[in-house]
Amino acid sequence: MQKFKRILLKLSGESLAGASKQGIDTQPLMHYANQIVEISELGIEIAVVIGGGNIFRGFKGEKAGFDRVKGDYMGMLATMINGLALLSALEDLGAQAEVLTAFYAEPVGERYSKNRAVNALKQGKIVILTGGTGNPFFTTDTGSALRAIEINADIILKGTRVDGVYSDDPEKNPDAIKYTSISFDEIYEKDLNVMDMTAFTMCRENNMPVYIFNMDVPGNLLKVIQGENIGTMVHN
């Protein structure tokens, strides 16, 4: 039984690097593409936002001496590279997909608008939203929150390499407790790391739930769509 009709799937760019830790590894790329196509064939409307951390992160560039604004635009272009890679992988699997960009970058993709994105979703296309918000100083988490709210998504599904939200870092603390459900207020009070504060605030104020799960496990995206509780639901 399908739990959602329209989703925004947020993926980590760094996960695309695989074992090499940078660039694009075709194995995780195709792993993601296969999972996305699997649920698209069920009639789920899917928008995807993917980060660019496998290529460049603006705030890391600043630490290395880059101007922050230029660094952030470099990061936005990195998301477009990842978006084109995902587009190619989806098309290789026979899916209909298109890339929309937060600022003019033709022929990479058409400029994003709510109407263009929603119309493509209604046509059954997988829509890849690149370029973040189109502005420096905002993360792809914030871009995900903004786009999810704009297109009236049912939920943000945040695919990570951990299986939910924990009371502490489970990789460092074996006694960390996993939450199956937690409110935005509790996240704030416990100072847990789910997303950046701007994205967090937008989701809380616009009643946009976020589900965190491990996207690296084959079949997990389908399980989430079917309502299996394998991650953590963050809600008002």
Structural account:
By secondary structure, this protein is α/β, with parallel strands linked by helices. It has a single domain, classed as Carbamate kinase. The protein has 8 helices and 11 strands. The strands form 2 sheets. It has a 9-stranded mixed beta sheet with strand order 4-3-5-2-1-6-10-11-9, sandwiched between helices. Strands 7-8 form a two-stranded antiparallel ribbon.
> N- to C-terminal separation?
24 Å
Question: How large, in whole angstroms, is the Cα Rg?
Answer: 17 Å
Helix content: 25-40%
- Quaternary: single chain
Largest sheet: 9 strands, mixed
Low-confidence stretches: none
* Count of helix runs: 8
The CATH homologous superfamily = Acetylglutamate kinase-like
Number of domains: 1
The strand line-up of the biggest sheet is 4-3-5-2-1-6-10-11-9
Query: Overall 3D geometry?
Result: globular
Give the ordered list of helices and strands.
EHEHHEEHEHEEEEHHEHE
Strand runs, count: 11
- Quickly give the CATH architecture: 3-Layer(aba) Sandwich
SS-based structural class? alpha/beta
Average pLDDT, all residues: 93
By CATH reckoning, the class would read Alpha Beta
